[in-house]
Amino acid sequence: MADISEEADQNSAPDDTLAVRARAFFRPLIAGAVFAAASVPAGLQLWQAAIGYGFFAFALLAVPSGVAAARARAKAGSKTGDARPRDLDVIEALDLPAIIFDDQTFVIHQNAASATLIGLYPERAALSAWIRSPVILDLVARVIDRNQPESVEHSERVPSERWHEVRAAPVSARTDTGRGLFVLTFRDLTEARRMDRMRTDFVANASHELRTPLASLMGFIETMQGPAREDEAARTRFLGIMLDQAQRMARLIDDLLSLSRLEMRAHVTPEGEVDLAAAVAHVVDTLRPMAEDLGVQIDLTVPDAAIVVPGDHDELIQVFSNLVENACKYGQSGERVEISVTRPEGQGAQVSVRDFGPGIAKEHVPRLTERFYRVDVETSRAKKGTGLGLAIVKHILARHRARLVVRSTLGEGSAFTVKFSPGNAGALSTSSDLYN
Ligand code: ADP
Questions:
Q1: What pLDDT, on the 0 to 100 scale, is given for residue 86?
Q2: C-alpha 313 to ligand 1 mean position (Å)
Q3: pLDDT tens-digit series, residues 404-414
Q4: Order of strands, edge to edge, in the sheet holding 107-110?
Q5: What order do you get walking across the sheet with 336-342 strand by strand?
Q6: Please, what is the average pLDDT of the chain?
Q7: CA-to-CA distance for 307 and 299, rounded, in angstroms?
């Protein structure tokens, strides 16, 4: 039997004996014999048929042509179920971490992917040298015992949260000393789990956000049908509150629809060109009344020459509106918002929105673009926020292959800068480096 641990030796053919070759050419030999036998009644002498068949059999068995040898090897291999060196080559090429071990849990072979995931086993090491999880070691013991494939789910939290489906299965080969062989594989479920969790969290958050105003609406309707039926002043006040709640639900649904539309178009490059100074000036004109109501002064600095970027006009307007509105709302105490459109030497165009409000603590900054993430939920609600504004900004910028850089100092204010890449859209940076 071939030894799966000795790759070099396995490159030689299985025993090239007469018996093996006879087995490989069993059918042609039988067919030849039938033909020889049939030629006797047809007029051939028995001794002539025998000699003819003898030559035929000799040609097949005694002269091991390349084809014959290959055929013999293939037949011998498939019959005995030997693991050939090619099996190890295949395992080596897989990006699925795989370890071959024997029935005493000694590692016989591991591929590079498993060395990266688990660590490189020294010669003749047991599986437990690197794998400490009782769940996996129990699985290995069971599979050796029952000789049946089985899998378990394994998760770990350190150094980061990861999930794997770990599968152990017997291999149809044995070591040269006749011991059983098994393969252990690790399928990474981390990304799938993360997506599942995000989806569940998102549905839970969206439902919660909608249920709160809905509960308030229902409460007021019941009050107006009952105790406040005849109270004109209370009814007027309640209707005002109900309108607020209904508007909050409408804002939320609008933002959810925006997000889902953006997700659908995530991989489509936006068409068109946008003059940044004109777009930002338009946003400032639209939001100035709101800023004045809040007591915030907006200063806009734009260059003389137009700065044009490839992009979707309406989407970029939405980005700048969200940033300027946030700066006015959350930075209200600073009473001033500075907006600039620039193209620094050797870099892409930039739009910076700076406020002088309370600023954002460092630990919140990397999470600001998560859906429904808010530094302070009550403040956001009071300011008619949905918690989706910056998530929408992130999606739009990802589509435009631009980045959002957030710098903030507590007590001094925040600067949200949109950085477009220099050159055309194809050479732009990805959204993965959202924060610098
Ligand atoms: P919201 O609808 O709540 O405004 P966003 O996604 O636009 O949602 O913003 C998320 C959170 O980020 C806000 O709730 C707020 O806590 C914080 N934030 C955004 N912009 C600023 C800013 N300029 N200054 C301070 N905090 C900000």
A1: 65
A2: 23
A3: 999 999 999 99
A4: 107-110, 98-102, 180-188, 162-174, 150-156
A5: 297-301, 336-342, 350-355, 413-419, 403-409
A6: 85
A7: 19
Indicate the top mutation candidate among 209, 298, 330 to test ligand 1's pocket, ranked by most ligand atoms within 8 A of CB.
Answer: 330
Q: Is 390's C-beta closer than 6 angstroms to any atom of ligand 1?
A: yes
Atom of ligand 1 nearest to the CA of 326: 20
Q: How far is the CA of 341 from the centre of ligand 1 (A)?
A: 21
Residues paired with residue 167 on neighbouring β-strands, in sequence order: 151, 185
pLDDT band at residue 159, thresholds of 50, 70 and 90? confident
Torsional class of 342: left (φ above 0), alpha (ψ -120 to 50), beta (otherwise): beta
- pTM of the entire predicted model: 0.66
Please give the distance, rounded to the nearest whole angstrom, from the Cα atom of residue 393 to the centre of ligand 1. Answer: 11
Tokens of 75: 């037949």
- What are the beta bridge partners of residue 151? 167
Name the residue at shortest CA distance from atom 11 of ligand 1: 374
- The length of the chain in residues reads 436
Residue ranges and CATH numbers for the domains of the chain are 2-82 (no CATH), 94-188 (3.30.450.20), 193-264 (1.10.287.130), 273-434 (3.30.565.10)
409 φ, ψ (degrees, to nearest 5): -130, 130
Neighbouring residues of 9: CB distance < 8 A, sequence distance ≥ 6? 2, 3
- Determine the distance separating the centroid of ligand 1 and the alpha carbon of 382, expressed in angstroms: 12
